[in-house]
Amino acid sequence: MATPWPNTLVFKRNLRRALAVALVSFGALVFSALVAADAAEPREETAFGSNPGNLRMFSYVAAELAPTAPLIVVLHGCKQKAAAFARDAGWLALADRAKLALLLPEQKGLPSYFYESPRSHVVATMFGANNQNACFNWFEPKDTVRDRGEALSIRQMIDAMLERYSLDRSRVYCRWSLGRRGDGGSHACALSGAFRRRRHRGGHTLWLRQRCIQGVAMHEPGYRSDAR
Predict the structure, then answer these.
(1) 185 CB contacts (<8 Å, ≥6 apart)?
(2) Which class for 124: exposed (0-12), middle (13-18), buried (19 or more C-beta within 10 A)?
(3) pLDDT digit string, tens, across residues 123-180
(4) In sequence order, what E strands does 15-66 have?
(5) Can you give the three-state secondary structure of 101-114, one letter per residue?
(6) Whole-angstrom Cα distance, residue 182 to residue 191?
């Protein structure tokens, strides 16, 4: 039997080593990705109240939550999802770094291919949607007054978070999406008006007179960015 060339033996040995290193590295990458994905994703919570506004509730609680940690309510904008917005805007990373809790209410909208369609409101109820573009209904009086609609749903979510995770009731803050899709800011302002007797804190720099907006048809005429 012919004796293998020395360089052939070396090649086979090096190949086995390279394959072993590649397999170990790949396994480590997969494990890290799975751990990171599991740690970085908000969870949906149920049974938080009567939910008259028909919203979804997501939460993100940092590992090793700080004692009496604050709660930040993060409101997404139109055409956005709560978890994706919180992740892309850096809220999840902030929660991990500061050891705090996030409440992420989510509006029920239509599938994206129905966005901006002039007839989408007709099929909205078929999908159980509140708003065709997944906007919070800050311009609808029934959703922005105390103890009604979406405002009450978010208040119930806040109360559920405070109780379930033993958070600091004196440090509840509200933040939102900015820019063209930043209707979350308008809803935060409406919530500040609806909850003005509670100790929740909103950071809106403008006061939106939501009472002057009586419905979708009055959306643009009723919005005053210079309102005091």
Answers:
(1) 75, 176, 177, 178, 204
(2) middle
(3) 777 778 888 888 898 888 887 777 889 989 999 999 999 999 999 999 998 887 654 4
(4) 43-45, 56-61
(5) EEEEEECCCCCHHH
(6) 15
